[in-house]
Amino acid sequence: MKLSGASNVEDFVGGLRWVSGMDGKLVRLRERRDEFLQGLIEEHRDRRNTAAAAAAAAYNCNDEEKKSITNRTLIDVLLGLQETDPEYHSDQMIRGTIAVLLAAGTDTSAATMEWAMSLLLNHPNVLHKARAEIEFRVPPSRLLTESDIPNLPYLNSIIAETLRMYPVGPLLVPHESSQDCTLGGYHVPRGTMLLVNMWAIHNDPRVWDQPREFRPERFQGQETGVVRDGFKLMPFGSGRRSCPGEGLAMRVVGLVLGTLIQCFEWERVGEELVDMSEGAGLTMPKARPLEAKCRPRSELLPLLSQL
Ligand code: HEM
């Protein structure tokens, strides 16, 4: 993430390429990454073969049953596809798919949860309101599940407001014009790199009332699980190259954040507010990682002690 997020002078001044050693660093990193991912593939391949053989021997099971035993993870699914189309779903293609999902899907979701939690610690009234909603919808005898998320509009509003104020893809991903075009009166020649300053749009006072105020209420009444509002709210980008992980991200962030609120009492470590400065990096991390105090909620203790 560090290497891919950095601006490199040698991308613009070709002659500097061999001085910085950046190419070499990236190649070495790729080799280590490929070795690690290939290890995962082999591990799954062995396990699938053993599980399928054991299942067939023990129960004489049919193809459908075999599939349900061996299709437990994404790598299993990709290896299953490899059996039907080995040329397209090569190990290299599987390594690429895992790498892109890890790179695009983990830091982004984790950073969004960290920003949301930081905002909640600085706004305890919002945290209490979110807890009240969860208590009303989810009995203390069970943990919140994915199917509860659509029934928690306030929690969804908190996530939308977090993504508005702290979009972890503040400039989206660089796009390139495939044809000459005119944008806002500017001539954009074919092949130009185009960056969209989503952070500026999300925080523009001409578009949003008091944009630097954390007010999840502004999204109340909106369909849950949707974080898109024309072109003024687009934390996942827009169009053909928008984030394909949006649905997964909204479920994961909702489930984790909701469960943390459901199960624990949260407090700031001191009197002072959590520092909300933005750090440098590809997925807009907090400048100072969040530290907070938490303890299990007494009502949830019987349930938590059984986990
Ligand atoms: C809160 C979490 C996330 C946010 C805010 C987010 C945001 C974004 C943004 C802004 C883009 C660029 C869109 C554009 O340039 O128009 C993008 C691309 C992408 N995202 Fe996400 N993302 C998140 C989670 C995920 C997850 C969980 C996955 C998959 C497991 C994922 C996979 C991808 C991929 C593969 C792309 C590149 C798509 C392409 O170039 O066609 N993202 N994401």
TrEMBL record:
Keyword Oxidoreductase part of the UniProt annotation: yes
Gene Ontology terms for molecular function: heme binding; iron ion binding; monooxygenase activity; oxidoreductase activity, acting on paired donors, with incorporation or reduction of molecular oxygen
Binding site for heme: C243
Top-level taxon: Eukaryota
Family: Belongs to the cytochrome P450 family.
PROSITE patterns listed in its UniProt record: CYTOCHROME_P450
Entry cofactors: heme
Name of the molecule in the record: Cytochrome P450
Organism: Stephania cephalantha
Keywords of the record: Heme, Iron, Metal-binding, Monooxygenase, Oxidoreductase
A GO biological-process term: secondary metabolite biosynthetic process
